[in-house]
Amino acid sequence: MTALLLLPLAVAQQEVWHGLLEVLLLLGAAMILGSLAERLRQSAIVGYLIAGSIIGPGALGWVSNQQSIFGIAELGVALLLFAIGLEFSPKRLMDLGKVPLLAGALQVLFTLVGGAAIVWLCGLPLPSALVIGAMVALSSTACVLRILSDRAEIDSPYGRISLGILLVQDIAVVPLMLLVTILSDGGSPWMIVRQMAVALVSAALLIIAFYGLFNHVAPRLLSLKSWQRNRDLPILLAVVMAMGSAWVAHWLGLSPALGAFVAGVLLAVSPFAVQIRADIEPVKTILVTLFFAAVGMFGDVAWLLQNLGLVCGVVLAIVIGKGSVTALATRLSGGQPQFAIASAFCLAQVGEFSFVLATIARGLGDEAGLLSDTAFRAIISATIISLLITPYLISMAPHAGARLAQLGRKSATPNPLAIATDVDDTDTHASIGREAIFVVGFGPAGQRASEDLIESMKDRLVVVDINSDNVAIARRYGLEAHIGDATQTEILEHARISRAAIVIITVPSPLTGRKLVHLIRYHAPDAMIFARARYHIHRWQLVQAGAHVVVDEEDRVGHQLAEDVQAALRQQGGE
Predict the structure, then answer these.
(1) Which secondary-structure segment (H or E) carries 138?
(2) Cα dihedral angle (512, 515, 517, 518), rounded to 10 degrees?
(3) What 3-state class would DSSP assign to 40?
(4) How far, in Å, CA of 272 to CA of 472, rounded?
(5) What pLDDT was estimated at residue 420?
(6) What are the Cα distances from residue 280, in Å, to 70, 77, 124, 153, 285?
(7) Could you say which DSSP state residue 56 is in?
(8) CA-CA 20 to 30 A from 99: which of 197, 302, 476, 478?
(9) Could you tell me the CA-to-CA distances from 269 to 214, 215, 472 in Å, in that order?
(10) H or E stretch covering 437
């Protein structure tokens, strides 16, 4: 009897371990092919997608539970959007201007209507054509923002346009899902209107709740002394906030990625935003990698090879058609030609949420005829291939935009529908001379070192410290100061360590000191590093790590004691 009672538990445990094995197989294959892609100077995302296609059910079949894995992997997209939101405070988000947001609305509308018209003219029923148009209207938020972030171009003019359009597309997810419901005769117009009203009210409640939580509760927790002493607690809070915001948005019937982005934006005004972004980075990396591998699993390699001509034709139509529509929408919104073209290159693919729309339409296909098996496989295959070529299109974007815009100027006429652009062509990452003096650790030693430098070099001093009180002191001195753990690359990059001419490391821990020296040697190879060694035994370890000058506290204390003794003896002799 006991054995019978324990049987369901044993079966459940077996399923858990089998699921873990599938996740490990996906991550392992993604690691190998991602590494190979990087070695060939290609984007690692290409390797991740291919890994999923090879070991997924459409090829080797080593991993079959793609729906469950895809559900878990969607958290990676939420974490990615949460991290990007942390870089965009509400003010900075408003600074995007009306060009990207208006362009996003026009792009979704034009692509939906135009794509549906073309598919309908090719002979498919109108409901199926509208579903395909809705799928093509969405680009890949995860893929585009990940690549732009890796290339440090998310804050470029065309990067901001792409971000704005992607945000509008995420907002359009709910109406597009309702469109599929209407086409399937699954709901009356009154029900659809009611669902839209509920979605709008839910979004308003979400923003109000997140504003109170992330602007009042979270900063107070992070400023507690106990939380600053224990690094585990802030990391747990960061993950809970990121995933919790995604879950709440999903529970309210909204896009989880959009909910995570809103949470990040509202938290961006906190002085702890950069540290939170660094804390979630490892978890985000794992889940985003799993996401792209899971997307690759949707591909059917055998069917793709048998219908390669059809799929290539669909991909070509998507890239050219959607790229043209995006460029046109951006120009009509007032965007400058070169940035309109560059953003078109960035967004000329079909996004990951299209898989959700396709799955819904396929499920309704037997009764409503929304999506046949051939149409489903063709659009899924074309989506994966469009994602595979996205890294190359984005790498071409700035040069192609400038070149095509220059060619177009010779025969261009003024755009009577364009409004004044809100995106200028100034480089937001203008070069900064290597002249900054970084002080890593602003405790008593860091403050003493800075006091002697402030009078003549105040404008050059930059402080990085994990303690909010120390950062507050630095800011009272009028210094540029950043909160965060300097042993994390994300924090150093945010503080722009590459501009450093001199770095003063005052942290007492020898392990932390050595790690900092290694990181700074990598990110600012020309910087001169001054490090503090609390004990004599650690001096040579810091020198071997790459520090140019090491101040040995025991040596300095010994010299000071000797000088004080000699001074006392001289004073006694004089008496």
Answers:
(1) none
(2) 180
(3) coil
(4) 12
(5) 38
(6) 20, 13, 45, 21, 9
(7) S
(8) 197
(9) 9, 8, 15
(10) strand 436-440
Segments making up each domain of the chain, as ranges: 17-409, 436-574
Least confident of 79-83, 116-120, 136-140, 553-557: 553-557
List the one residue out of 125, 99, 23 whose CA is nearest residue 64: 23
103 burial via Cβ count (<10 Å: 0-12, 13-18, 19+): buried
SS3 assignment, position 531: strand
Tokens of 224: 């507690």
Sheet holding 549-552, edge to edge: 480-483, 461-465, 436-440, 500-505, 528-533, 549-552
Residue 131 has which token pair?
């579903």
User: What's the rounded mean pLDDT across residues 378-397?
Assistant: 88
| Residues 469, 492 contacting (CB under 8 angstroms) | no
Closest CA to 153 of 418, 401, 469: 401
Contact 510, 533 (CB under 8 A): yes
- Annotate 365-398 with DSSP letters as a single string: HHHH--S-HHHHHHHHHHHHHHHHHHHHHHHHHH
Q: Are strands 500-505 and 480-483 parallel, antiparallel or unpaired?
A: unpaired
CA atoms within 13 A on the CB side of 164: 34
Residue among 293, 263, 258 at smallest CA distance from 280 = 263
- Give which of 166, 81, 109 is closest to 394, Cα–Cα: 166
Q: Which CATH superfamily is domain 436-574 in?
A: NAD(P)-binding Rossmann-like Domain (3.40.50.720)
Nearest to 463 by CA among 476, 449, 479, 448: 479
pLDDT for position 419: 38
What is the third-level CATH fold of 17-409? Answer: Na+/H+ antiporter like fold (1.20.1530)
Question: What token pair was written down for 8?
Answer: 């369901």
Give CB contacts under 8 A, 24+ apart, made by 485-490: 485/231, 485/275, 485/278, 486/440, 486/441, 486/516, 486/519, 487/512, 487/515, 487/516, 487/519, 488/278, 488/281, 489/278, 489/519, 489/523, 490/274, 490/277, 490/278, 490/281
**What count of Cα atoms within 13 Å lies in the side-chain half-sphere of residue 92?**
17
DSSP structural state of residue 484: S
Task: State the Cα–Cα distance between residues 57 and 22, nearest whole angstrom.
Answer: 12
Mean pLDDT of the chain: 79
Element (H, E) at 538: none
Of 560 and 109, the structure prediction assigns the larger pLDDT to 109
H or E element in which residue 480 lies = strand 480-483
pLDDT tier, 65 (very low <50, low <70, confident <90, very high otherwise):
confident
Q: What is the pLDDT of residue 196?
A: 67
Structure tokens at 574: 């004089």
How far apart are alpha carbons 416 and 173 in whole angstroms? Answer: 31
Q: How far is CA 539 from the centre of its chain?
A: 39
Chain centroid to Cα 114, Å, comes to: 30
For 475-515, the pLDDT digits (tens) are 988 899 998 888 888 788 888 888 899 999 988 878 788 88
pLDDT band, residue 363 (cuts 50/70/90): low
Q: Quote the DSSP letter at residue 458.
A: G
Written as one string, the DSSP assignment of 344-358 is HHHT-S--THHHHHH
